[in-house]
Amino acid sequence: MLDRNFEAAYRLMNSPQARLAFDLAQEPTSVRERYGMNRFGQCCLLSRRLIEAGVRFVTVNTFLTVFDEITWDIHGSKPFTTIDGMKNIVAPMYDQGYSALIGDLHERGMLDDTLVCTLAEFGRTPKVNPAGGRDHWPQCFSTTFAGGGVQGGRAIGASDPIGAVPADRPTQPGEIIASVFHSLGLDLHAEIPGPGGRPFPLVDFGVREVKELFA
Q: Which terminus of the chain, N or C, has fewer Cβ atoms within 10 Å?
């Protein structure tokens, strides 16, 4: 099984279609500039090219590291990013690349069949720390979904006034995963083989997708 999977992965990476998909020089300059001439923007463009080439799952990481460069990690002091860095560089870069990807997929008729998610493992403290930044805060944060059957233009749930805790319609991590599986057309009641041949549930018992996303 491992050998077959390795062979399939090697064929994919070594195929002419894959090499062509990774060649961003095939794109007009205007399209590349629409996404932003930075690593994140060009990775968003690359993700669209990979989907067009038949790739079924793509992950875009915004940064390679969090140290000594502008990143999401806005603790405020070196080697991390300041709030000004987030406001003036990181957030505009993200807005440009992400919106360009959604718009491009829509214009090419691909958005209905492509789920685009922005996910993270935690949010940021609602108050600024003494170093002038914000630290890790898992109690409350947001995710975004577009395409793949999601009905856009809506916000589901809300935080308290300072973004510290959920105040309305809190969503658990399991519901996010279930929503992804639902978009992909998977049966949430399905089981997959687990250790020792025992079945393993696709999602925990009773966990469902966020129905408001698709209603």
A: N
Q: How long is the chain?
A: 215
Place of tokens 């709030």: 83
Residue 1 has a pLDDT of 58
Q: Which residues pair with 137 in a beta bridge?
A: 123
| Structural domain harbouring 103 | 2-170
The count of other CB atoms within 10 Å of the CB of residue 163 is 19
> Does any domain span residue 160?
yes
Q: Is 200 helix (H, G, I), strand (E, B) or coil?
A: strand
**The two structure tokens encoding residue 87:** 């406001």
Is 50 part of any domain? yes
CA–CA separation, 182 vs 149, rounded Å? 9
Task: Give the model confidence (pLDDT) of 61-90 as tens digits.
Answer: 888 888 888 889 999 988 999 999 999 999
Domain count, the chain: 1
Structure tokens at 115: 């789920």
Neighbours of 3 (CB within 10 A): 7
Structure tokens at 14: 């070594």
Does residue 190 sit within a domain?
A: no
Both structure tokens of 71:
């990143």
CA distance 18 to 20: 5
